[in-house]
Structures are given as C-alpha cells and as structure tokens.
Amino acid sequence: MSKTQNKLPIPESLSEVESYMKNRIGLEDSFDLGVRKLKILKKNVHFYYVNGLCDTSPIVQIVKELVGINNSEKLSLQLQSIVENRIVHQSVEQVKTMDEVVDQVLSGLIVVLVEGEGIGLVVDVRSYPGRQPQEPDTEKVVRGSRDGFVENIIVNTALTRRRIRDERLRFEIMKVGERSKTDIALGYIKDVANPDLIKVIKKELEAIEIDGLAMADKTVEEFLVKQGYNPFPLVRYTERADVAATHLLEGHVLIYVDTSPSVIITPTTYFHHLQHAEEYRQSPGVGTLVRWIRFLGVAASLILLPLWYLFVQNPDLLPEALSFIGPNDKSNIPVLLQIFMADIGIEFLRLAAIHTPTPLSTAMGLIAAVLIGQIAIDVGLFVPEVILYVALAAIGTYATPSYELSMANKIGRLFLLITTAAFHVPGFVIGMTAWILLLAGIRSLNTPYLWPFLPFAPKACMQILVRRAVPGSTIRPSIVHARNRQRQPAKNG
Amino acid sequence: MEENQKRLEQNKHEKPMSFISMVVITGLVGGIVWSSLALLAYFFNFTEVRPNLILEPWALGDWKKGWIGTVFSILAIGVLSIGASLLYYAVLRRFNNMWVGMAYGIGLFLLVFYVLNPIFPGIESFWKLSRNTLITTACIYLLYGVFIGYSISFEEAERNVREEEAKESPVS
Q1: Which of helix, strand or coil describes residue A282?
Q2: Distance (Å, whole) CA B14 – CA A474
C-alpha cells in the first residue's frame, strides 16, 4: 500500500479538483464526462460522472435527498457525515486519492466531493449497456437452460453463483491492461480446485503487460498458454452457465473476462473439446450414442479425405469388397488438386457465411449448392466422388462441438493429405503417427493434451467413451488434481 | 428388490485403482486397441502381417485362419501385452517422458520381427518384408510403446505428487 502514499491526495479546494479533472481526463473536452455542482448548507458539493455508464434514476434520488438537506438541517460543521448519511444507496465507499477518483468515475461510478474535506464518496450506480442473457449460438441444446453468458462480468459471475450457492465458491477479481483496466475474475471452488493451478494462473495473469484487452478472453488465453503457432485449442470456452458450473464442480478453474460472453475453462484436454451439453441433457444411453456418432464425425473430418486419396493413388490397396471405391470417371484435373480446390471452396463459403447478413445468406446457399456443386461436375472440373468426400469431411467438421478444434482438425487433414500425396502408404501411416505423437506431446497448463487416452487412465477413458450416469460418477477426474476427490459423500456400501 | 437396487450403476461407489491393476488394464487395452488397428491396416493392405500371426506357432484347427482365429489372436495379444506392460512397470517406470516409451515399442518390434522371426513361418525374413509392411508395423509398435510407457510413467509421477501432497497436509 506504499503506492497510495505517492499518489496525489484529493485537494480540499473543489476548484483545484476541477482543474485537475480538466487536465487529466479532459472534462469539457470529452462530452461524456460531466460534473454537477450543488450548494448545500452554503458549501460546494460536486458530483463527477460519465453519462451512459451510470443509471440516472438513483442519481436523481441522491440529488433530491442532498438538496433536501438545505430545508431540514441547520448549518453544521459536519457536512461530510451528513452528506454520507443522506446518500440513499447501499454501496458507498470513501476514497482519498485523485487516482481512485479518476478510475471510479471512468468505470461508471459517481464520486461526490464536499468542499474542504479531501474525501470522495464513491457511489456504485453503474449500469453498463448490454443485452439480456440469451441462448448462445454456438452451444444450443434441445432442452435445458437458455441463459448464456453476456458481455458483463457481473452478470456472468451472478449466473454462476445462482447455480452454485456454495460458501466456498470464490471469484477473485483483478484489473489487467494499462489503459483498458479490464476486469478479470478467477472462479474456483476453494476446497476442490488445485491450489497450484490457481497460483500459476494468477501469476500469469498478473504478469500480463498490455495497454488494452480489446479482444478480451482470446488475448488473455494467448498470454496464459503461449501456444505459438500450434493450432490446437489449449483451453476450452463456454458461453453456457451450466457448463461453467459443471466444470467448477469438477475442480476446474474458470477465467471470466469482462466484455466477453465466453468463459475460459482450464485445464483442458483434447477430449474436453469433444463433449457437448446436449449429451448430458439426454439419458445416458442416448448421450453415449450421440457421443459415438460425434466421434465418427470428427474422425471423418480428419482422415476420410487422406484415406480416400490414398486409395485413388493405389487402387490395389483396396480389399475385394470395397473395390468399387474410387473415381469412376476420368478427370481432367489431378484429383489432389480437385480436393484442395473443393476444400478451399467450402472454406470460402464458411468465411462468407460468417459475415453475410441473413437475407443474403439464402441467396448464397443457393449459389453454393446448385450452381457450384452440380455445374462444376457438369463442366468436367470435379469428379462426383470429390464433392461427396469433401462434403462428408466438411459435415464432420461442423459436427465437432468445439469450433476451435474443428479448425485445427482441418489443418491436420490438409497436412495428412500432403504427406499421403507425397509418400503414399508410408506418408499416411507416418503422418498419422506423427500427428498422434505431436498431440500427445502438447501440455496445456501441465496437463497432457490427449489424457485420458494417452497417457491412459482407464476409468476416465470410460467416462469419455460412455456418457456415465451422473449419480454413478462419484470421483472427480484426476487430471484437475482436485483436493477433494469424492463428488458425492460416500455412503457405506 | 434390494439386490436389484445394488446392481444399478447409480448405487456403485468407485474407488481409485491400485497401480498394479491400472498397469494390467493398460496392457490389456493397449494390446487390444493397437492390434485391432493392425487388423484394420491389414484389411487395407498396408501390411502383410495380420494379428493371426500370434497363433501360427501352434498347431490348431483351420479356424485359426477365420474370424474366430482373428478374435482369439487379438485377445491373445492383449494378454501377452499385459506381460509387456508389467515388464515396463518393473524396469522403466521412473522415466517420465515419451521417448522411452517409443524406444520400448521399437524394441518390441525388433524383438518380434527380427529376433523371434524364425518361429513365425507365416512372415518372411526381416529383410524380405515390403517397405509398407515394415513402416506400418513399426509405427503401430511405436504408438503401442508410447501408450504403455507414457501411461505407466505418467501414473507413477502422479502418484509421487499425490504422496508428497499427502505428506504435506495430512488432512483426510
């Protein structure tokens, strides 16, 4: 706290405060900063505020109450305590330095200053522009809660707290960013989460030196896991409050970043990216089936194209029963080039769809489906098989629950295609081996990326293969190093 | 009714596994998973060697070449693989990195295909095998070695960490 002593204390004269505000934060230059001057018991009382970030109705109440002092109180030397007593709001705090005053005003709180006192009263009347919680677009479910996280960290932590009313749930808040001063909250359950992990994350967050976190959670992630050009997502994001709460209970540590509707879940493995809330909204049997089909889709997105291309190159590899596979028509362009063109074409579509407004996207879909697909075959550009397999791989990509992982798998697919094209069977086999070993070698926050498959953990692996009944899964996954491994109190039996 | 209730999954209580049973299960699953993959590779003609190889030294009926033989040989490889993982557990578990596992896998590959080659009449001698066969089988053995080795070494490291934690804070 020695830092506070170096900072400028609030001057007693209010005109000095005003000139400080003019020089430092551009009062009068910026239109969104304002000051309201009142005269109460013959003394000046000033309010500083930022319009748009604070709610007017409580301010009007407070002003009414303060002006009322003139009618009901006698002249007194105790103006400061009278004013403090009359502020009709539950959240009032005293500050003593100008830096705090500036920070709080710019965060949307109001600061009340009384002539000759050198103390600021901070009233929390923040009301940030934002939307109501709605269902996130990327994680829809058929049944289940529809309230997703929003851009406001307070609402997000509240949505989580509503699901876990545990006294040991902690949200530690800190400010990161020299200029943006973005709020970041670290959420965990105290007697469950691994204290070492919390320490590591806290250290990494405090070490962030940047002017602003405009891209919020993504920027924080890059500082946290330092992945470089490795395309695989090393943390998982969720916009669903129920998914966040589930992971807290499993012993994960969550990072909430203000201005972002996604929450970072750490530590994460490859298989965390293959799970979806929908599986836990169905009965265990159905959930298991859904999960297996999803695995098939992901596998198809990764190896279907390279494998098919291998058979195009070496048709003699095909067993008798499958010998019908392969391009039946002669093609004018090498098949490898066709695959790349079709795959890149789909990528064009995907990129276009992201920023095309809905009314135009119908037209875009028509052009894509009818014109490009069919006509490319008719004019002899593509053979039909290329369209089929590229489309299957693309659907597999979309069946991947994690958007980030589906993109990384796409890169893996192109890499395998190239090695297969160059070295045939050895290229495919060594490419697959290298891919698995590379993934197994990744460690995200000290967690092996392919856990629980490699290194193998039998029980956790069962949890991945089979969506277990919730009452049966009484042990927290060991990878989070939970301090308390039992989820449900063990009865004798 | 009571009996029935007890058998439901909901009423079971899981207990953390002992190390040795984890090693045995890892060996069994590793053997089955990777030999199944080898079967797939054989099906697509990546390799000339099929899992049925394991039954060759024994004179059995004709069934050993059919699908029953395949199922049996995958199970047999699973059982043999328990031995391989126990050996790793006994000798190499202290090395907590993937390279040791890879070397272990390659070592096993050389043992089966080079040293023990004469007892399998079905495979050609090492130098006469095709390039595809050698590379595919070597890769499968390598991944198998990493699977066994990395899993056991990782578990060993985890257990050490947990023990140290238990020493530091003797709560519960």
Answers
A1: coil
A2: 6
- Residues A261, A371: one domain? no
A308-336 pLDDT tens trace = 999 999 998 998 888 888 888 778 889 99
- Interface confidence, given as ipTM, is 0.88
Give B-chain residues touching A428 at CB under 8 angstroms: 46
Q: How far apart are the two ends of chain B, measured CA to CA in Å?
A: 35
Which tens digits make up the pLDDT trace of A225-251? Answer: 888 899 999 999 999 999 999 999 988
Q: Verify that A308 and A418 share a domain, yes or no.
A: yes
Q: Which domain holds residue A218?
A: 153-268
- Per the CB < 8 Å rule, is B25 touching A454? no
Say yes or no: A433 contacts chain B, CB-CB below 8 A.
Answer: yes
Q: What residues in A contact B135, CB-CB < 8 Å? A: 425-426, 429-430
Residues of B near A (CB-CB distance < 8 A)? 6, 9-14, 16-17, 22, 25-26, 29-30, 41, 43-46, 98, 102, 131-132, 135-136, 139, 142-143, 146-147, 150-151, 153-155, 158, 161, 172
Domain ranges, residue B81 = 21-155
Q: Which of B12, B154, B161 sits opposite A448 (nearest CB)?
A: B154
Contact (CB<8Å) A448/B41: no
| Least Cα separation, residue B143 to chain A (angstroms) | 7
d(CA A111, CA A96): 11
- Whether B126 is covered by a domain: the verdict is yes
Per residue in A294-313, pLDDT (tens digit) is 999 999 999 999 999 999 99
**Residues of chain A contacting residue B43, judged by C-beta atoms under 8 Å apart:** 319
Chain B residues with CB under 8 Å of A485 CB are 16
Tokens of A352: 């276009």
Q: How confident is the model at residue A3 (pLDDT cuts 50, 70, 90)?
A: very low
Helix (H), strand (E) counts: chain A? 17, 12
- pLDDT per residue as tens digits for the range A103-137: 899 989 999 999 988 899 999 998 888 888 889 88
Q: How far apart are CA A385 and CA B41, in angstroms?
A: 23
Number of domains within chain A? 3
In a domain, B150, yes or no: yes
Number of structural domains in chain B: 1
Q: Would A93 be classed as within a structural domain?
A: yes
Contact B54, B113 (CB under 8 A): no
The pair of three-digit structure tokens given for residue B56, joined into one six-digit string: 């060759």
Measure B40 CA to nearest chain A CA, in Å: 11
Q: Are residues A194 and A254 in the same domain?
A: yes
DSSP, res A174: E
